[in-house]
């Protein structure tokens, strides 16, 4: 019966979507056609009249006093994390924005990072812009390809056409995996999304001490220190660059307003932060996650960000009670939370430096600031036991507790890619159920947000409880500036904006909600909001890698009257089946309308590169030049595949050490290099095991062909392999890789030739370990 309903709704919703797509809702065409010359052309300049070109600034488009715009977007942040929304972590910068404007306690995201970011930038639902999941898990369906279409231009592109200077600092996770190399294409890099300048990283997360830095389109190595001379940290670095860019922009062209998108890699894993910040939180979380939830809930009620009649949702059965844990586990888990709290506080501090600079420039009064505390709920991807290295989660390789205990003093440092346990993520999402990935419940989608604009918003510290979503940011900004999304951009007809401007809430705390319908879907988890009701169907538990088998079309739906039940604590599904049936029909109608279908609950299987375009598909042989860097999405896939790596080199008398080939680094990867005159192959199994194969003798000098032959036991995940080393076809060493990386080698590091960027694959050499001989080429052959 339900399938018949779905087919019917699919037809009508698809028909409606076509009508909406073909119906223009704005007359503007951008970029504008060239205006005809209105001067006079004579035979010489003496009998001609020139027309002086106009500056591309808002005033010349009839826009007076256009505001500067700052978006601060925190990564993987829960509703109950920041002090501004009742969390135990002080966040004075978010406090400042909220106290200088408005605090929104019913703002929503998509439950995952790049989908939220695509929705925010375009003003359309994430499936509408092909971003139904992170690009690394994309598939060949319209809602899931990871390719933001040309028919959904960003509000940044519109602002640029009206004279804004747009700069993006931090994370760009909206570039398809296969488009991240030096050959692009660059349509979905920052420049193609409307930004004049970019400084940050391209991907899901990065090492905060050794980030995979990109400036505009060029991959660069980070500086040794921050601008003030302190030890390097990525969040500080992007704050330094944002401040310098704003000051330079206003110094050179004060007529141009700026739009700064400050999109931190924090508080996404790895949780890395200067040690002096961690020391500030020592002992503050020894009471555990259950106590944290209770105390945070009390603070939330006191602040008024949660209604007095709200109920605190219970701990899921699959998460342990804090008091049930052995003492040594509580010790390491409390320390992980101390590191995370420090990471959060440090991030808020750096955002504060950016806002301080705006104030020092005299621009704060006319700057519209959105401080969005999360692109989804807090992350449970640390699993039940927390992680020293996030790559163990993505490759389903367990970490011994003894390793964690031995790392108590170094957690948060460059030695680890750490992540706290899932129960802390659940606590960060107080008072809601579930976490990141779970679009069906507010633990995955409800994020605190503050907006300030002193020149326009006269309220100070007030709360707004209208229901809103990330797609509402773009139309809010366009209304604030006084422009519309064009009907046509770059010659392409535009999809309607699906968001609703929030400006109606600025002056009226009691304004009636204008967003009355909003669907949610992520990884098979389904939700629908309509007129104060919410229906929710959870498909998979986020701290487990895969959901148990189930029927996506017949889910165990829950029903909540959230106008009376803020936290989704009281399931009314059994009491009101008619209402639930109505809500489920709404969900499938919206799913058909916005490219959500086909529903897909796969996780690991969708990470298979065969699902997406590939620069390497069909090729068996790859020859690369010296000093090239390739992201994993553009590199040959060597995981559990037999292959050879051959380097043609010239080694001078006296020898030459250095890296020949490597992929990944300290947290997973492998490399072939020369050290102390010997050929070495190192395989780092996500920091849990290290397999080293070394030549028995020093390699010869002169023109030499060095080779590593990797023969896998089987073409399947975790398969071991035999590795043999050769110099000029003579076998010089052999050994074993007992277990291999199954899914992903690295989240941010590259495949390097002739040097090693990022972090070392083994600790026996110093970066960048550039090969001191002559490297002519490296050839990879797949068997």
Automatic annotation (TrEMBL):
Record-annotated Sulfatase N-terminal domain positions: 67-483
MF terms (GO), sorted A to Z: arylsulfatase activity; metal ion binding
Keyword Cytoplasm: no
Domain of life: Bacteria
Pfam families: Sulfatase
EC numbers: 3.1.6.1
Entry keyword set: Calcium, Hydrolase, Metal-binding, Signal
Signal peptide: 1-26
Family: Belongs to the sulfatase family.
Record-given protein name: Arylsulfatase
Native source organism of the sequence: Bythopirellula goksoeyrii
Gene symbol of the encoding locus: atsA_24
């Amino acid at each position: 019966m339900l399938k018949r309903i779905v087919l019917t709704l699919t037809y009508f919703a698809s028909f409606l979507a076509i009508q909406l797509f073909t119906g223009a809702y704005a007359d503007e065409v951008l970029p504008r056609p060239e205006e005809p010359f209105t001067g006079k052309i004579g035979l010489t300049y003496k009998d001609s009249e020139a027309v002086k070109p106009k500056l591309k600034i808002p005033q010349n488009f009839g826009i007076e006093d256009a505001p500067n715009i700052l978006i601060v977007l925190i990564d993987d942040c829960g509703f109950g994390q920041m002090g501004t929304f009742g969390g135990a972590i002080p966040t004075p910068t978010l406090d400042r924005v909220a106290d200088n404007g408005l605090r929104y306690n019913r703002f929503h995201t998509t439950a995952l990072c790049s989908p939220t970011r695509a929705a925010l930038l375009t003003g359309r639902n994430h499936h509408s812009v092909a971003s139904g999941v992170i690009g690394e898990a994309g598939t060949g369906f319209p809602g899931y390809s990871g390719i933001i279409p040309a028919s959904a231009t960003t509000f940044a592109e519109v602002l640029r056409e009206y004279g804004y200077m747009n700069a993006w600092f931090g994370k760009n996770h909206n570039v398809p995996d296969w488009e991240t190399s030096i050959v692009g294409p660059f349509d979905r890099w920052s420049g193609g999304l409307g930004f004049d300048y970019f400084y940050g990283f391209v991907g899901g997360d990065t090492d905060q001490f050794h980030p995979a830095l990109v400036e505009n389109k060029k991959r660069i190595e980070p500086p040794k220190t921050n601008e003030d001379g302190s030890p390097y940290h990525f969040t500080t670095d992007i704050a330094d660059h944002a401040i310098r860019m704003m000051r330079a922009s206003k110094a050179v062209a004060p007529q141009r307003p700026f739009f700064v998108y400050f999109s931190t890699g924090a508080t996404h894993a790895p949780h890395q932060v200067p040690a002096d910040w961690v020391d500030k939180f020592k002992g503050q979380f020894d009471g555990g996650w259950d106590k944290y939830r209770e105390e945070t809930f009390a603070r939330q009620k006191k602040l008024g960000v949660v209604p007095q009649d709200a109920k605190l949702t219970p701990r899921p059965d699959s998460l342990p009670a804090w008091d049930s844990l052995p003492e040594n586990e509580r010790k390491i888990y409390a320390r992980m939370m101390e590191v995370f709290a420090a990471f959060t506080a440090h991030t808020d501090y750096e955002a504060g430096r950016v806002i301080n600079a705006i104030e020092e420039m005299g621009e704060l009064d006319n700057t519209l600031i959105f401080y969005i505390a999360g692109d989804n709920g807090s992350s449970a991807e640390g699993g039940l036991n927390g992680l020293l290295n996030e790559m163990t989660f993505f490759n389903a390789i367990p970490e011994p507790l003894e390793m964690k205990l031995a790392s108590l003093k170094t957690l948060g440092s460059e030695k680890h890619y750490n992540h706290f346990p899932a129960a802390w993520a659940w606590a960060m999402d107080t008072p809601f159920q579930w976490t990141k990935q779970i679009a069906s419940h507010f633990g995955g989608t409800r994020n605190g947000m503050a907006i300030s604009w002193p020149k326009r918003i006269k309220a100070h510290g007030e709360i707004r409880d209208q229901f809103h979503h990330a797609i509402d940011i773009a139309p809010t900004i366009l209304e604030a500036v006084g422009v519309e999304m064009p009907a046509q951009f770059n010659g392409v007809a535009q999809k309607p904006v699906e968001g609703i401007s929030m400006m109606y809430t600025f002056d009226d705390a009691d304004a009636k909600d204008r967003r009355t319908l909003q669907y949610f879907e992520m990884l098979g988890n389904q939700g629908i909001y309509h007129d104060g009701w919410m229906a929710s169907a959870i498909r998979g538990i986020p701290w487990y890698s895969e959901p148990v088998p189930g029927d996506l079309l017949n889910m165990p739906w829950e029903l909540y009257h959230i106008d009376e039940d803020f936290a989704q604590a009281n399931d009314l599904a059994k009491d009101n089946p008619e209402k639930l049936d109505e809500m489920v029909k709404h969900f499938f109608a919206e799913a058909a309308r916005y490219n959500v279908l086909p529903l897909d609950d796969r996780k690991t299987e969708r990470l298979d590169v065969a699902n997406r375009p590939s620069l390497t598909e069909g090729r068996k042989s790859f020859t690369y030049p010296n000093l090239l860097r390739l992201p994993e999405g553009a590199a040959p896939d060597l995981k559990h595949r037999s292959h050879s790596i051959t380097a043609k080199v010239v080694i001078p008398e006296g020898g030459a050490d250095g890296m020949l080939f490597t992929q990944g680094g300290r947290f997973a990867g492998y490399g072939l290099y020369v050290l102390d005159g010997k050929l070495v192959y190192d395989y780092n199994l996500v920091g849990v095991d290290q397999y080293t194969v070394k030549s028995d003798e020093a390699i010869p000098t002169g023109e030499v062909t060095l080779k590593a032959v990797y023969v896998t036991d089987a073409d399947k995940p975790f398969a071991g392999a035999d590795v043999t080393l050769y110099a000029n076809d003579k076998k010089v060493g052999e050994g074993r890789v007992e277990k291999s990386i199954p899914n992903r080698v690295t989240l941010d590091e590259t495949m390097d030739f002739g040097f090693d960027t990022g972090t070392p694959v083994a600790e026996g050499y110093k970066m960048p370990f550039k090969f001191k001989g002559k490297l002519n080429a490296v050839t990879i052959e797949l068997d």
